[in-house]
Design goal:
Number of domains: 2
Distance between the termini: 54 Å
Radius of gyration: 21 Å
Strand content: under 5%
Mean pLDDT: 83
Shape: flat
């Protein structure tokens, strides 16, 4: 017997979609998503066209992030420490009002 499952309620379909997003994020990488420091400082770069960083604002590409990117608080920040990854951390560094309230132990 076959059962009709309306679109959007199929767990397998949702899992396949999530995998496709992850693969797209992985394949794109970070190629030309940030400006080249050397190019910004000196106006030239020893890697030229092979540099993985952008040498002009027109070369910059948007970064495709995983849907869960920066949705959870960084453990280092939550514990009151300083995150060694800084702005490159995959977790949030800002706390909501509720997250700022100390949890009783």
């Amino acid at each position: 017997q076959r059962v009709y499952v309306p679109p959007g309620n199929n767990k397998r379909e949702e899992a396949e979609e999530a995998k496709a997003v992850e693969l797209e994020v992985y394949n794109q990488g970070m190629w030309k998503t940030e400006l080249c420091n050397k190019w910004q400082e000196t106006g030239s770069c020893p890697y030229g066209d092979y540099c993985q960083f952008a040498h002009d604002f027109t070369e910059l590409r948007p970064v495709i992030r995983h849907p869960k990117y920066k949705t959870e608080v960084c453990r280092m920040v939550l514990s009151g420490g300083i995150c060694p990854y800084g702005h490159r951390c995959h977790f949030r560094h800002s706390l909501t009002e509720q997250e700022r309230i100390p949890v009783p132990r």
